[in-house]
């Protein structure tokens, strides 16, 4: 059975909507997802980098994120044909471990928690495929990287790209 | 550069001494490491399994464990010749994430925390070597398993075995 490793933030968990909402509220701004094409919020507002990162360091930030559209249904279907691992770069936000674990248990309860991986450098992941929104994780990944579209990565080229979970489904099951 | 993945509990962190001390205190027993040859404490006292496991589920249990003799010095030396990752089956004790992370930061501060991996099923680990005290992790591991001696595994045969960190040093650097 081939194995698919799946990133959390920006792929199954919508951190961006919450980050933007908090930022706009606290700074009286109206930045939209459109404004973030090709960049992350910290690149758009570099002088506020610390404040932006602090949202993500808040222990409960990741606990109530929205689930990305169709990800539950498609991953459930994929899990009948592939071994599924959730591989998240949690070491960047060590305060988030518990929230991320609880979120996965709540929204992806059909997965075995022995298949959750909290890591940093994803070159440690032994899988046939890695679905991720950050191209840096593909550099030393031994399998096939699949770039999940997120505003910040829309101008990246040279990668297999999927724009949503229906396209993931088509890639693996068609 | 070849990569060595290293388990925490029973390999760099001495959970057994603390577990035994707590158990002996609470149950007025005098079980020694000698009594645990070939078995774990839950196999020696199966009717107390829940209580024994509860020690490990206590969020701070892993925070103040003793460092296994010579592990710091040898890993520091190995890190000059190999890529080192710490790979711990933390999903078995999700309450332990923070304590484990902080313990690693305290005692192995010379390692990059991007090389810490909290996982369950270690077949996800992409490394050339895995030093571990549980043979079950070698079953589907793609590299070379190296069994680190612990009382519970002394009767396991058919594995490359190291009895202490000086033997790890000899294996990799001689």
The CATH topology label of chain A is Rossmann fold
> For the CA atoms, what is the radius of gyration of chain A?
16 Å
Query: Percent of residues of chain A in helical segments?
Result: 25-40%
CATH architecture of chain A: 3-Layer(aba) Sandwich
Give a concise summary.
Chains A, B: InterPro entries: 5'(3')-deoxyribonucleotidase, HAD-like_sf, HAD_sf. Chains A, B: The active site is at 7 (nucleophile), 9 (proton donor). 2 copies of one chain form a homodimer. Helix content of chain A is 31%, strand content 17%.
Q: Could you explain the architecture of this structure?
A:
The structure is a homodimer of 174-residue chains. Chain A has 174 residues and is α/β, with parallel strands linked by helices. The first copy, chain A, has one domain: HAD superfamily/HAD-like (Rossmann fold), CATH 3.40.50. Chain A is built from six helices and eight strands, in the order E-E-H-H-H-E-H-E-H-E-E-E-E-H. In chain A, the strands form two sheets. In chain A, strands 5-4-1-6-7-8 form a six-stranded parallel β-sheet, covered by helices on one side. In chain A, helix 4 packs parallel to helix 6.
């Amino acid at each position: 059975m081939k194995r698919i490793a799946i990133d959390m933030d920006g792929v199954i968990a919508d951190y961006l909507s919450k980050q933007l909402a908090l930022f706009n509220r606290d700074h009286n701004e109206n930045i939209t997802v459109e404004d973030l094409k090709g960049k992350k919020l910290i690149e758009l507002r570099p002088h506020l980098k610390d404040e932006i990162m602090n949202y993500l360091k808040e222990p409960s930030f990741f606990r109530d994120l929205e689930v990305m559209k169709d990800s539950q249904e498609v991953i459930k279907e994929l899990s009948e044909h592939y071994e599924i691992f959730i591989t998240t770069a949690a070491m960047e936000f060590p305060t988030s471990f518990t929230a991320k674990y609880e979120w996965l248990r709540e929204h992806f309860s059909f997965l075995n928690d022995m298949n959750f991986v909290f890591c940093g450098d994803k070159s440690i992941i032994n899988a046939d495929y890695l679905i991720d929104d950050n191209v840096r994780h593909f550099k030393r990944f031994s399998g096939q990287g699949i770039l999940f579209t997120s505003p910040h990565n829309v101008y990246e080229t040279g990668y297999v790209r999927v724009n949503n979970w229906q396209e993931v489904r088509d890639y693996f099951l068609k």
